[in-house]
């Protein structure tokens, strides 16, 4: 082949120039193979880094918005729980707790309408029943400082004991009312357990509102119960995974210690201790003719069934 013809052909079709990623100047075609080596010739000691298997979401909109909406309902909650125990009874308090749970549910409906809209009524009611015992102990830790101010009128042990006696006596039919001594002996250890092993340890963790609301969503969307459908359980699992990711991202953004996430999630086991003690309390109340809300009775039936 005539070399001159080959040269003419190359002038008509010059090679495409490659642009360096680090400079706007064109590379020398004669040196391009040295500066941009083929991937097939890459040494095995320099593999391409794989994408991370789990990417932490920094979008914390669900727990942040829940915390914002939670703050907005505090005036209503303050009025809801304005009475001290000596001014109410077990049945009335259980009705208030049920209403408190439904306020949380309304917040969730506003945040996750596509999730809650298609939820079966029976699943929703079962979720709220399952949520009630855990929420009762978690909210006691959340509202602890407020409750300290609310109960500041009770100055000594005798005042507190009198309050508890009146609370339980007015929760029982007159013919079944227990003596003050029997009430303190029966219900005193239960209340002491809540304070020592559940409420105080959670409050001591000093969580902020967003972390408390993350815990609230995690205990609300607990799919481990047998009284909900398989579809509902799967939905709960997906929501919990979302909350876990958001909680992790939120704490990273706040520059919290790495152990904070583990410490927050570990709180769920403390709440479960309170839930078990709550079930025990319901059984004791039933034995001593304490007037219970129907949801509480259904909880006991599901627990025993």
From TrEMBL:
<dbReference type="Pfam" id="PF00104">
    <property type="entry name" value="Hormone_recep"/>
</dbReference>
<keyword id="KW-0675">Receptor</keyword>
<feature type="compositionally biased region" description="Low complexity">
    <location>
        <begin position="32"/>
        <end position="43"/>
    </location>
</feature>
<feature type="domain" description="NR LBD">
    <location>
        <begin position="95"/>
        <end position="275"/>
    </location>
</feature>
<protein>
    <recommendedName>
        <fullName>NR LBD domain-containing protein</fullName>
    </recommendedName>
</protein>
<keyword id="KW-0805">Transcription regulation</keyword>
<feature type="compositionally biased region" description="Basic residues">
    <location>
        <begin position="10"/>
        <end position="19"/>
    </location>
</feature>
<dbReference type="InterPro" id="IPR035500">
    <property type="entry name" value="NHR-like_dom_sf"/>
</dbReference>
<dbReference type="InterPro" id="IPR000536">
    <property type="entry name" value="Nucl_hrmn_rcpt_lig-bd"/>
</dbReference>
<dbReference type="InterPro" id="IPR042936">
    <property type="entry name" value="Nhr-150"/>
</dbReference>
<keyword id="KW-0804">Transcription</keyword>
<feature type="region of interest" description="Disordered">
    <location>
        <begin position="1"/>
        <end position="47"/>
    </location>
</feature>
